[in-house]
């Protein structure tokens, strides 16, 4: 599951179980409509390398299977069920409550689980997530059709509706986390929002600080905390890490030497389509606000042997400001210092080099500059 960050495996001693006569004694009671007798169902957890690891096995008999409770756990844990017929899996949260699971043999991901509040919240979230993803695909198609037909206004209108729908979805999900600060599913949701790039790490840290109680001691939450902690150096309010690099002319340029009243650190590359599409907007902002104290330093993630392409893109896009690059692509040490894993990525600094905003694009950049300058 994409929203699960790697977790440290906990030692469990659980033996294989098969069907017994008294269904009421089973911790997990499963039904498997249409699955033939003798089919094995595997219970998995994630090991320390984020790979599923089988910890128990059940056998389907008369379309039913069972798992007994293993060692009592201190905290709820993420589990998966799989079958020997394929790599598909269903996800659920195992805690202290007995569960009932119904497998969908055509798509284990579409299976269901009842019996605990954690799983109810998880599956409600997944339903909302699927609905949002469907709408996103529809917006993407509608906007593409509008722009291809030359209807710029319609395309812009679709984009606005899309962004409004995204904000509504995020607010709904935020409320789930804030209403359930002591549940493991909240950690999982925060991880999903980060991995799907629906929120930045500053918002993720804000949500993470809502978590409380035993959930903070779980492996998955500790893994999420470890992942987010490395971004505190570039969080809003932090002093921007200093760096230097070579300009297109071969001179060494340092961040501290280019700070204005407001400074934009812009990570981009000549090969990056979204970066090149955003450049005209940044050019307009620079021309409007440079005389008022707005500076820009662009850090190119162009590849080795792409110096000519880097310089040509600067000239073609009229990026008349400071530039540096080591031509090291994703291995650029400045990108690593700023935890940049996708571009365009921007950091807006005040005159003291403190980060005051991130990833402002389009009109949002102009609005912020108007506010500050």
List strands and helices in order, with pairings.
Blueprint: E1 28-31, E2 40-46, E3 52-59, E4 64-67, E5 77-83, E6 89-94, E7 99-102, E8 112-114, H1 117-148, H2 152-179, H3 184-195, H4 201-208, H5 219-229, E9 244-246, E10 252-254, E11 262-268, H6 273-289, E12 294-300, H7 307-316, E13 322-325, H8 333-337, E14 345-350, E15 355-358, H9 363-372
Parallel strand pairs: 1-7, 11-12, 12-13
Antiparallel strand pairs: 1-4, 2-3, 2-5, 5-6, 7-8, 9-10, 11-14, 14-15
Helix pairs in contact: 1-2, 2-3, 3-4, 6-9
Class derived from helix and strand content: alpha+beta
Q: What coarse outline follows from CA principal-axis ratios?
A: elongated
Mean pLDDT: 89
Task: Give the CATH topology of the largest domain.
Answer: Glutaredoxin
Fraction in beta strands: 15-25%
